[in-house]
Amino acid sequence: MRSGRGQSLNPRFLVQKAPELRGELSRADLGCAFAHRVETPPNAFSFGPRLQFGSSLVAGSSRKRSCKAERRKHFNLEHSFATEMGNGLSDQTSILSSLPSFQSFHVVILGLDCAGKTTVLYRLQFNEFVNTVPTKGFNTEKIKVTLGNSKTVTFHFWDVGGQEKLRPLWKSYTRCTDGIVFVVDSVDIERMEEAKTELHKITRISENQGVPVLIVANKQDLRNSLSLSEIEKLLAMGELSSSTPWHLQPTCAIIGDGLKEGLEKLHDMIIKRRKMLRQQKKKR
Ligand SMILES: Nc1nc2c(ncn2[C@@H]2O[C@H](COP(=O)(O)OP(=O)(O)OP(=O)(O)O)[C@@H](O)[C@H]2O)c(=O)[nH]1
Ligand SMILES: [Mg+2]
């Protein structure tokens, strides 16, 4: 079974958990709530789903001008290797890029197409559900997340398209990354083997040795979603290298359930690894 665009939802779950979705749900007759998609133009560097949020997120002309130089700098420094692939950069990204980088963690979001990566990204960014279109290149956002201990950290997320033809590019994005978020569609049983192959392939790359992986078991709101233990088994997570710290987190990206908890774990694993690397350096 393949879920995702136009899938059958568990409406009771959503109505209880996501009051802001009720209008959407009644319009869609509680059956295929997200069948009504707002398509965004497929041109590179389009503002993607952000356009749906109105003026507060579309920069005014003066702000645009003042950001121009910063945007160019940011772009040259960080995106040059992948500019041709981009389809979701924003003014917000460029402003946030000027923040001090010592608290910023570079995190790549990977997973098969339709797993919910972009939904995760924009749920974290706007704390709202955003209708998505398949990612042709990547989306990137710097997002401040307040963790349980009230500490605010900045994650620089790179959400890369999961279609088969785009997967060879994943390794370019994981170069020097602090962490990987690997999103899995919990009802896509048929493609669990494919997800396993991709997960193991990306973690086995020598540069990714020791990089913490947060495996997001997404779409837990759907009927027939696999349990965590089933997913753990199907993804053969026990066979991941012993040097790869991982955590499996159940989520529902459309309402945001489980995302903060997952990031908390990822943050802990990243900090632990950084400490370990520092100690190893000192010993040498
Ligand atoms: N029911 C349910 N649907 C979800 C959830 N997360 C995402 N979706 C839906 O799954 C579909 C695909 O989501 P995307 O975020 O575009 O998937 P993606 O992984 O970015 O896909 P690519 O960009 O093609 O790699 C959309 O219709 C989302 O609304 C979830 O937690 N529950
Ligand atoms: Mg996407």
UniProtKB/TrEMBL annotation:
PROSITE patterns: ARF (PS51417), RAB (PS51419). GO terms for biological process: brown fat cell differentiation. Keywords: Cell membrane, Cytoplasm, GTP-binding, Lipoprotein, Magnesium, Membrane, Metal-binding, Myristate, Nucleotide-binding, Nucleus. It comes from the Eukaryota. GO terms for cellular component: cytosol; nucleolus; nucleoplasm; plasma membrane. Mg(2+) binds at T118, T135. GTP binds at G111, L112, D113, C114, A115, G116, K117, T118, G162, N218, K219, Q220, D221. It is found in: Cell membrane; Cytoplasm; Nucleus, Nucleolus. InterPro entries: P-loop_NTPase, Small_GTP-bd, Small_GTPase_ARF, Small_GTPase_ARF/SAR. One of its GO terms (molecular function) is GTP binding. Signal peptide: none annotated. Pfam families: Arf. PANTHER family: ADP RIBOSYLATION FACTOR-RELATED (PTHR11711). Small GTP-binding protein which cycles between an inactive GDP-bound and an active GTP-bound form, and the rate of cycling is regulated by guanine nucleotide exchange factors (GEF) and GTPase-activating proteins (GAP). GTP-binding protein that does not act as an allosteric activator of the cholera toxin catalytic subunit. Recruits CYTH1, CYTH2, CYTH3 and CYTH4 to the plasma membrane in GDP-bound form. Belongs to the small GTPase superfamily. Arf family. Interacts with CYTH2. Interacts with KPNA2; the interaction is direct. Does not interact with ARL4A. This is ADP-ribosylation factor-like protein 4A. It comes from Rhinolophus ferrumequinum. The gene is ARL4A.
